[in-house]
Write a structure and sequence with these properties.
Mean pLDDT: 77
Shape: elongated
Structural class: mainly alpha
Distance between the termini: 82 Å
Helix content: over 70%
Largest sheet: none
Radius of gyration: 47 Å
Low-confidence stretches: 1-10, 204-208
Length: 246
């Protein structure tokens, strides 16, 4: 066991940790002495209590390891020696607890055996195997669900990207259509202006054949305009279909 607390250790905080660790060690040793006399559930409960005490001892050692760096060099050698003694004691308790925890027969009682022979033992082993298989199946289903979720997420991301591309294509096509409509409107205005100038420049008392020629000219003009509009619309439709599939 560790040496008593020296008054010249240098750090009151280190000394408080040291005193607390001694109490935890005493409690841990008491629990370790009780475990060999127990079995079944009481033994498992005692092992858990010892494990908690061991964790607390390790935490105190960590605090002491930090605090001893603040102790003056003149007294640090004595502190380091006591600290190493504490580490040795805690490590021995850890190995002893591991040995007691690995003794599965006394931990689980008379029900445990590596080679079950009775019906109760065989049933218990079968239940354990069934539970393990159920856990494996649940894990596989969980992994499969995660895989499907990732695939769905990727599909959704690709779909959004396709929709964005199609939206940009539609916006671009709409802009081209509006621009084409502007060209058609200007062409119509130009042709109508030409028709009005022709009417204004025609002398009064023009012959009937000239008037018929004018009507024919206006009909031809309207037909050309209609064909031009239809051609533009057809070209735009083909442009949309081409951009969608390429």
């Amino acid at each position: 066991m560790s040496n008593p607390l020296d008054t010249d250790a240098g750090s009151e905080l280190f000394g408080s940790y040291e005193a607390e660790l001694k109490l935890v060690q005493a409690d841990l040793n008491q629990k370790l002495d009780q475990i060999p006399d127990l079995s079944g559930e009481p033994r498992k409960a005692a092992v858990r209590q010892a494990e908690r005490a061991l964790d607390e001892a390790n935490e105190l050692l960590d605090q002491m390891r930090i605090e001893k760096q603040n102790i003056p060099s003149a007294t640090r050698n004595k502190v380091n020696q006591r600290f190493r003694n504490f580490e040795t004691d805690v490590d021995q308790c850890k190995r002893k607890l591991k040995t007691l925890s690995d003794d599965r027969k006394v931990l689980f009682g008379d029900r445990y055996t590596d080679n079950p022979t009775s019906d109760a033992q065989l049933e218990q082993r079968q239940q354990l195997l069934s539970g393990t298989e159920r856990m494996d199946r649940s894990s596989k289903r969980l992994r499969e669900s995660q895989r499907l979720a990732l695939e769905t997420e990727n599909i959704g991301r690709d779909t959004l990207a396709d929709l964005q591309t199609q939206r940009e294509t539609i916006v671009h096509t709409r802009a081209n259509l509006l621009e084409s409509e502007g060209y058609v409107d200007r062409s119509v205005k130009t042709l109508r202006g030409m028709a009005r100038r022709y009417m204004l420049l025609a002398p009064y008392g023009r012959k009937a054949e000239d008037l018929n020629y004018l009507r024919v000219f206006r009909m031809a003009t309207n037909r050309i305009i209609t064909i031009a509009i239809i051609t533009v619309l057809v070209l735009l439709i083909f442009a949309v279909i081409y951009s969608k599939f390429h």
